[in-house]
Design brief:
Number of helices: 15
Number of strands: 15
Radius of gyration: 21 Å
Distance between the termini: 49 Å
Strand content: 15-25%
Order of helices and strands: HEHEHEEEHEEHHEHHEHEHHHHHEEEEHE
Helix content: 25-40%
Shape: globular
Oligomer: single chain
Structural class: alpha+beta
Largest sheet: 7 strands, mixed
Strand order of the largest sheet: 10-9-11-13-14-8-15
């Protein structure tokens, strides 16, 4: 009983990357991302509910509710039981406390699909995928399917204390010079659809096909796909804007810092981004030139020294005495400006690649595919999530506009290079 009382009092500070998200939340900007798995047989809701109840015990730092304090938001232990929900609405809609029982995530199901939608105040894509796989593992275990733990966390094991660590603070270096803030980038010009809606296009293709194309340019898959996005956006700007009004075109590419800093334990946010791009004001870029620009940026920016500049700027902001003593009800009014000025205005779209999903081979016969969705917003109106599993890559664009030229140009580019693509949309 005493241990339960201590657990009920447990609370967590938001990690540094999460500080802005609660103050930005709206119907247009929900701060959610989505990771989903499609199984080879229909979901059994009672088993899924039980699997969620077991899995959440393994992640006490997700069993929380978001609270607004005097000076900052914080996460407080939530003793309630999370409930699964039918996946019959648009994805990544704003969380409603009554619907989610106060949790900063929701688990949804429909036919063969299980999806986890998580608020960025509690974790990033890596944490979301880990949580989803734990639920999946428990779901299969309840079906008497045996597999070894390792790639999937055991719900019965005690979590490592480092899993709830704010890794940004851990690796913060005082007196580090800050990363420069970039000028405004080009953004898609089309009118927004009503808030709460999102248009989705997913292309499924062979990982090997894309890897072969990337290797022709000595590029990684992420570098190659970012280059295709830049090439498509360059064409859209050329067709819609006078050359005198051209702006730089840039892609924001989140980077998982766990590998870079050799700190795999944390299950909270630990990713920052690299911005790669071109400046069409200097003239039109060939695809080869675009790939070279992206590769050079990735090479120069993805290292501890360069990333530390961005990390220091973010952490110093939260450590600033004047910032800390401003009451939260005043402070949160500054967040939209910071989000736009230091974030979204600098780039034209986001490309987030979660990489290849590895699971125990015993579970492979039961899982068909994975999907990853990155939320669009009123500034960057189409964003891209990539995830691979069992030799298949699924690339999903979510957009807040009806116009689909960006996605059409992207997938057409790949098709013309002999990549067979199966396209789905809502």
């Amino acid at each position: 009983m005493r241990r339960q009382k201590e657990q009920n009092k447990q609370w967590y500070k938001l990690d540094n990357a999460a500080l802005l998200y609660p103050g930005l939340e709206s119907n247009r900007l929900t701060s959610l991302f989505r990771v989903a798995a499609t199984l080879k047989s229909p979901i059994e809701p009672p088993l899924l509910q039980k699997a969620l109840e077991h899995a959440i015990e393994r992640f006490p730092y997700y069993r929380v509710t978001l609270k607004m304090g005097m000076f900052w938001y914080f996460l407080e232990h939530n003793p309630k039981t999370p409930h699964i929900l039918r996946d019959d609405k648009y994805p990544m809609q704003r969380l409603k406390k009554k619907e989610t029982r106060g949790f900063s995530f929701r688990v949804r199901y429909y036919n063969n699909r299980i999806a986890v939608e998580m608020h960025h105040s509690i974790t990033d894509g890596t944490g979301g995928l880990t949580f989803l796989n734990c639920i999946l593992g428990e779901y299969f275990r309840l079906q008497n399917i045996k597999f070894p733990y390792g790639y999937i966390k055991d719900p019965k094991e005690k979590p490592d204390n480092q899993e709830s660590c704010d890794a940004f603070g851990k690796f913060y270096r005082p007196a580090t010079p800050y990363q420069d803030i970039l000028s405004q980038a080009y953004h898609l010009p089309h009118s927004l659809i009503p808030s709460g809606r999102t248009n989705i296009i997913t292309g499924e293709m062979s990982v090997e096909d894309v890897k072969t194309l990337a290797h022709e340019y000595n590029a990684s898959i992420t570098e190659y796909l970012a280059s295709v996005m830049l090439y498509a956006l360059q064409e859209i700007q050329r067709d819609n804007v006078s050359p005198k009004r051209y702006k730089p075109i840039r892609i924001s590419i989140p980077v998982n810092l766990r590998k870079l800093f050799q700190f795999q334990q944390t299950m909270r946010n630990f990713s920052l981004y690299v911005i790669a791009g071109i400046d069409p004001r200097l003239g039109e870029y060939s695809f080869e030139e675009i790939v070279d620009c992206v590769k050079n940026t990735m090479k120069s920016e993805i290292n501890v020294k360069s990333i530390s500049r961005q990390l220091a700027r973010n952490v110093d902001g939260s450590k600033n005495f004047l910032v800390r003593i401003i009451p939260m009800f005043i402070k949160k009014n500054m967040f939209p400006f910071l989000f736009r000025y230091m974030g979204e205005r600098q780039y034209s779209a986001t490309l987030s690649n979660l990489g290849n999903v590895t699971i125990p081979q015993e579970l492979a016969p039961y899982i068909e595919s994975y999907d990853f969705m990155v939320p669009p917003n009123h500034i960057n109106k189409s964003n891209c999530g990539v995830i691979s599993y069992n030799g298949k890559m699924r690339i999903t664009f979510n957009r807040t506009i009806d116009n689909s030229d960006f996605e059409r140009l992207f997938f057409t580019f790949l098709r013309r290079r002999n990549v067979h693509i199966t396209v789905e949309s809502n």
